[in-house]
Design brief:
2 copies of one chain form a homodimer.
Chain A: H1 8-18, H2 21-25, H3 36-54, H4 58-64, E1 67-69, E2 72-74, H5 79-88, H6 107-120, H7 122-141, H8 144-156, E3 159-164, E4 180-183, E5 189-199, E6 208-215, E7 228-233, E8 246-251, E9 262-274, H9 281-287, H10 289-317, H11 341-376, H12 380-415, H13 427-435, H14 444-459, H15 463-479, H16 486-512, H17 515-550, H18 556-573, H19 575-584, H20 589-592
Parallel strand pairs in A: 3-6
Antiparallel strand pairs in A: 1-2, 4-5, 5-9, 6-7, 7-9, 8-9
Helix pairs in contact in A: 1-11, 3-6, 6-7, 6-10, 6-11, 7-8, 7-10, 10-11, 10-12, 10-13, 11-12, 11-17, 11-18, 12-13, 12-14, 12-17, 14-17, 15-16, 15-17, 16-17, 17-18, 17-19
C-alpha cells in the first residue's frame, strides 16, 4: 500500500517560485491573512492530518465500504473520528467567509488543501467536498435566512451537504428531471421524487444533511427551462431528529470509491425551500460549476500522485533482470526495476501528469480566487471576466487531467506486474477509484462538448484559444535563444500555431456541418490538454533552469528532476497531441456515416 | 449486463471470405476432418454452450468468487456443472491428437472455440485454458509413459493442469527461481518450494490437477541455465485421493477474474517427475509459449467484443440530449446515445478493435496450424519456420490487443456514463477482468522487449518487419487505383515505409546505445500493432468492397459496416501510430538521464 507523503517541496515550488502566490494574495481582500507564514502553517498542518489520519483509512475504507441498514448508512471504521478531527481543525470553512463561521482565506488555499486530502483518501474527501457544492450554491443564491439557517452549520462542518441532480432516466440531460415541487401556503414546497447517484446522500458523519435538489414546479415549462432549485434538509432547522420525508433507499454497489456513500434518495413530500428564482435552477446550479469541476479535476492529479508514490517506491525496491546497458547493482541478485527503460517511461509519465497537473490546478486556483473575490465584492464585470477565463480552463482540466490520471494510475499498477492486480498492494484500488473521475461531474465527452461547442465556438469564436496560446508564444519567443530552453520554446511556438489552426479549421467546418462538433470534440479536448500541460512544463523548466544557474536551488536534484521530466514530457508524451489533431481534422463521415440500424454485433 | 451473442457472421466472414480456411485445411493433415460442415457444427454448438451455459455465469461468478476453506477451493455456483457439460462435449481435446483421446482437429479451431468461451466467461475459460498449457508441454516433451499417464486424462478434461512458474521474489526474472528438486532412488524427485499466482492451482472441477513446475536440481548452475521442468500431480496416477504434498496455501484477493482461483501453491517434498532434459526447463517451457500467448491475446479481443455488445445495446436504448445536426427521434423525449458523435467514436473504436483483433488472431491461427502440423510430423525445418513467423506475431498480438482491449473495455463503461460504474450493469467487471491481461503471460513491457530486442534486432536484424510489411506494400500497390480502396492503399504504403524506417533507425542507435531497446520498445510495439491492424482492416475492406460490388453480400449492411469501420480505423485511430513512432525515435536520455536516487516525490 502506498504510504502518502504530501509533496510539500513541489507545492512550495509552485506557490513561491512559479506562480508567486505571495504577490497574488496581495491583490485580493481574502489574501490579507494568507501570509507566507500562514500558508506554511496550513500546508504543514494539513499534511499531518492527511498523512497520519486520512491516508491510513484509505485501504481499510475500501475493504469495509459503507453499510446500509434500516435506512441508515454507516461509514467505515475511523471515518467519523477523522471527520471530527477535520471539523475541529476548522478545515471545512477554510476559504469561506468569516461572517458564516469560515476562516475567510482564499479559494486557492481550499484547492491546495483539497489536493492533499484527495490524494490521501479520495472517498473520505468526497463528504466535505459535496458539502462544498451545497455551501457555494447557498452562499451565491440563498436568502439571508437561508444563509443563517444552512450556511453556518455547513461552514462549521457540523452539517453535510449534497447536490441532487441525477434521476434514473437522466444524468447529463437534466431537462428530463421529473421530481416535483408543490407550493405550500407557508411559502415552502413539498418535494417528491427519486434521485440517484447522490454522493454523501446519507451517512453518520454529521448531525444533519442539506440537499440541494433540482425539481419542477407545477406547470413549469418543459425541458431545462422549467427546473428550479430547492434546499431540502434531512431535518428541518430546529427539528433535528424529526423525519422530513428524505430517505436513503439503497446504496449503489460500485467499482470503487467504496467508502463514499452513493445513495438512491427518495423525497416523499419532503419540505423544501426555493433557492434562486423559479425555473432558473439550472443556471443557479451552474454558477459554481467551474469551481466544482476544478475540484473533480483534482482527482486526476491526486490519483496520478498516489499511484506514482506507490510505483516509485516499488521500483526502487524490487529486483528483476539486468539493465540493458549492463549491471547496475552487481552485488544484488538483479537490478532494481527503476533501471529499466520501460519502467522509467511509466514513472516519468506519472510524474509528468502529477506535477504538470498540479501546476495547471494552481494556475487555475488563482483565477478562482479572482472570480470569487469579484463575486464577494459584487463586481459583476470582474466576476464575468474571471468566470469566463475559468470557463475555458475547467473542461480541459476536468477532461484531460482525469483521463490522464486514470491512464497513469494504470501505469502504476503496471510497474508492479502481476502484484499490481492483488488487492493488498493497494495499486488496483487507485485505478478503481480513479475510474469514476471521467464519468461524474460531466463525462469526458460532456467536457469536450462544453469546451469545443460552447466555450470555443459559440461563446468566443476561438478567442479563448487565441488568448491562452499567447502565453505559449510569449514563452517561446522569449526563450528561443536560451540553449537549455530552446527545444521547449520552439515546440511551444509550433503547438500555439497548430492549436489555433485546429480551432479555425473546425470552426470553418462547423459552419456547414454541425456534426464536427461532436466528432472532433474529444480529440480537440485532448489536444488542448496536451498543449496546456506543455506550457506549464516549459514554465517549470524555465524556473528550474534559472535556479540551477543562479542559485537558490536546494536541493539541486529537485530542479534537475524538473528539467528531466519536462524533457520527457516534450519528447515522449507531447507527440500524442499531433495524433489528436490529425484525428480531429478528419471528415465527420468516418464517424457518422454508419446508420444506427446497421451498427450491430449480430448481423443475420 | 451484456448478453453474449457469438458473432458468427463475422467469424464466417473471416474463415470463408477473408482467409479461406477451407483451402488452408486441405494443406494440413489435421484439416482433413475439418470440412465446412464440421466447422459450422463446431461453431454452432460452441456458440450454444457459450450463450446458454457460460455467459449466464459470468456476473454471478464475479459476485460469488472462489472460496477457500480447509485447503479446498470451491468455484462459484454452476461452474462445476458447466465444466462437466464442456467435458461431455469433448471440447477440451478438440485440437489434440486422437491417440490421446482428442478429436485431432486443427489448432486454429481450438483458438476459434477459445474466443467464444473467452468472451462469454473469461474466468471460467481460464480453467481449461491452463490445462492446455500443461497438455502442450507434456505432448512436446513427455516420455511415452507421461503421455499415457497424464496427457490422456488431461485431454479428456477429467484432470486439470497448471503452469507453476512465479515465486514471491520473481515473476519475469525466472532465473531467481528457488524451488528445489531432490532426486530419489526410484528416478522421481521430491519437489519443495512455494509458487504464487497459480491460476487453477486448486479447484473442484476435476478429480486431479497436474502441475508443471519450474525447479532447481541440486548443484544446478545459477540463473536461468539451472532450471528444470517437473510434472508434479496433486495425486499420483492410480493414487487419487492420497496426499502428495501439494497444497493450496491461500487464494489471492484480486481486482477481477474473481471466479478464477489464483492460488499460492506449497510443494512439501511432493513427488514429481522430470520432463525434458535437466537444466533446460526454460527452453521446454517456452516451446509452446507462442501459442499460450496467442491464447492470452484473445482476452483483448474478447473483452473488446463483450464491452462493445453491452455498450451498443445501451447506446440504442438510452435517450439523452438531441443530436447536434437536429432531432433524430422527434417523438421521443430525447435522441438515443448512438446519434451522438462522441458515443459513436467509442463504439466504432470498440468494433474496430474487436473485429480487427479477430482478424489478427485468425490469421495467426493458420500459422499455428502449420507450426503444430510440422511438429506432429517431426519436420524441424518447417516447425522452425512457422514458429519464427508466429514469434514475430505473438508479442504484437499479446501486447497490442490486450492494451487496446483494456482501453475499449473502458470506452464501453464510458458509454454508460455514471451507470457504467455501477456493478449491476456488468460493464465495470469487464474492465476489471481485462486489466489482468496486460500483466500476466509477460507484461506489455516484456512483450515489447521480446519483440524489439529479441525478434526484431537480435534474431532477424529487422527482416521480420521487412517481410511482414511486404504484405502492406502488396495490398497498397495492388489497390492504389481502386477509388474505394485508394485511401487504405496509400496509407498502407506510407506505414510500410515508416515501419521499416523506424526499425532501421532504432537498429542503428542500438549498435551504440543499448538503452534504446528498452526506452523505445513500448512505442515500437504499439506502432507495430497499429500497423498490423491497419493491414487487416484494409484486407477486410477489400473483401467487403468486392462483395458489395459483385454480389454474395448478404446482408449488405454487414459489408457496409466493414467499410465504415475500416475508414474510421484509418481516419481516427491510425494517427496514434505516428505519435508512437515520434516518441520511439527520441534520444534515450529523455528517459534515462534522471538518476535513480534523484527520482522522488519527497525532496528534502
Amino acid at each position: 500500500m502506498p504510504t502518502y507523503k504530501a509533496p510539500v517541496r513541489d507545492m512550495r515550488f509552485l506557490m513561491n517560485e512559479v506562480f508567486d502566490f505571495e504577490s497574488h494574495y496581495k491583490t485580493i481582500p481574502e489574501g490579507e491573512e494568507a501570509t507566507p507564514d500562514m500558508v506554511e502553517a496550513i500546508i504543514g498542518e494539513m499534511a499531518k492530518l492527511c498523512e497520519n489520519t486520512l491516508a491510513p483509512l484509505y485501504q481499510t475504507g475500501d475493504e469495509e465500504g459503507c453499510k446500509f441498514e434500516d435506512g441508515k448508512v454507516t461509514t467505515p471504521k475511523g471515518f467519523k473520528e477523522a471527520y471530527d478531527e477535520f471539523v475541529a481543525g476548522g478545515w471545512q470553512g477554510l476559504s469561506h467567509p468569516v461572517e458564516f463561521g469560515g476562516q475567510g482565506l482564499p479559494a486557492s488555499l481550499g484547492l491546495i488543501k483539497s489536493e492533499m486530502m484527495a490524494t490521501a483518501n479520495w472517498s473520505f474527501t468526497m463528504y466535505p467536498g459535496l458539502s462544498m457544492g451545497a455551501m457555494n450554491t447557498i452562499q451565491m443564491h440563498g436568502s439571508d435566512q437561508q444563509l443563517q439557517d444552512y450556511l453556518v452549520p455547513l461552514t462549521e462542518g457540523r452539517w453535510g451537504g449534497t447536490m441532487c441532480l441525477t434521476e434514473p432516466q437522466c444524468g447529463t440531460d437534466l431537462g428530463q428531471v421529473k421530481t416535483k415541487a408543490e407550493p405550500q401556503e407557508d411559502g415552502s414546497y413539498k418535494i417528491s421524487g427519486t434521485k440517484i447517484f447522490i454522493s454523501s446522500g446519507e451517512h453518520d458523519l454529521t448531525e444533519n444533511i442539506v440537499h440541494i435538489v433540482l425539481a419542477r414546479l407545477p406547470d413549469a415549462p418543459k425541458g431545462t427551462k422549467g427546473i428550479s432549485l430547492f434546499i431540502v434538509p434531512k431535518y428541518l432547522p430546529g427539528k433535528i431528529g424529526e423525519d422530513n420525508g428524505v430517505h436513503c433507499g439503497s446504496l449503489e454497489k460500485k467499482m470503487g470509491i467504496k467508502a463514499s456513500a452513493t445513495c438512491v434518495m427518495n423525497f416523499d413530500e419532503a419540505t423544501g425551500f426555493l433557492i434562486g428564482p423559479e425555473n432558473q435552477g439550472l443556471e443557479c446550479m451552474f454558477t459554481f460549476m467551474n469551481t466544482a469541476r476544478i475540484g473533480t479535476s483534482i482527482q486526476g492529479l491526486a490519483h496520478a500522485e498516489l499511484s506514482y508514490q506507490g510505483a516509485l517506491t516499488y521500483a526502487k525496491e524490487r529486483k528483476s533482470m539486468r539493465a540493458l546497458s549492463g549491471k547496475k547493482e552487481p552485488d544484488a541478485i538483479a537490478d532494481s526495476l527503476i533501471h529499466h527503460g520501460d519502467v522509467r517511461r511509466m514513472l516519468l509519465k506519472q510524474k509528468a501528469v502529477a506535477e504538470g497537473g498540479r501546476a495547471m490546478i494552481y494556475f487555475a486556483a488563482q483565477y478562482a480566487d479572482k472570480m470569487i473575490s469579484a463575486a464577494q465584492a459584487d463586481n459583476d464585470e470582474e466576476y464575468k471576466k474571471w468566470d469566463d477565463e475559468l470557463g475555458f480552463l475547467t473542461p480541459i482540466l476536468k477532461g484531460f487531467l482525469t483521463e490522464k490520471g486514470l491512464e497513469v494510475a494504470n501505469d502504476g499498477m503496471q510497474v508492479f506486474g502481476g502484484h499490481g492486480y492483488i488487492k493488498e498492494h493497494g495499486m488496483e484500488q487507485i485505478v478503481r477509484d480513479a475510474r469514476i473521475s471521467t464519468l461524474y461531474e460531466g463525462t469526458t465527452g460532456i467536457q469536450a462538448l462544453d469546451l469545443l461547442g460552447r466555450k470555443v465556438l459559440l461563446l468566443t469564436k476561438g478567442k479563448c484559444v487565441r488568448d491562452f496560446s499567447k502565453k505559449l508564444v510569449d514563452f517561446g519567443t522569449k526563450n528561443l535563444r536560451d540553449p537549455k530552453l530552446r527545444p521547449f520554446a520552439w515546440k511551444l511556438l509550433k503547438i500555439a500555431a497548430e492549436w489555433n489552426y485546429l480551432t479555425t479549421r473546425i470552426m470553418l467546418v462547423a459552419a456547414k456541418d454541425r456534426d464536427v462538433v461532436s466528432t472532433a470534440s474529444y480529440d480537440f479536448l485532448m489536444y488542448s490538454g496536451y498543449a496546456m500541460m506543455a506550457y506549464f512544463w516549459a514554465l517549470q523548466a524555465g524556473v528550474a533552469r534559472d535556479k540551477l544557474e543562479n542559485g537558490g536551488n536546494e536541493p539541486a536534484e529537485f530542479y534537475k528532476a524538473k528539467l528531466a521530466t519536462a524533457e520527457f514530457y516534450f519528447d515522449r508524451m507531447l507527440p500524442s497531441a499531433k495524433a489528436h489533431a490529425d484525428a480531429a481534422l478528419k471528415p465527420t463521415k468516418s464517424t457518422m456515416q454508419l446508420k444506427p440500424e446497421h451498427f450491430s454485433f449480430d448481423y443475420e
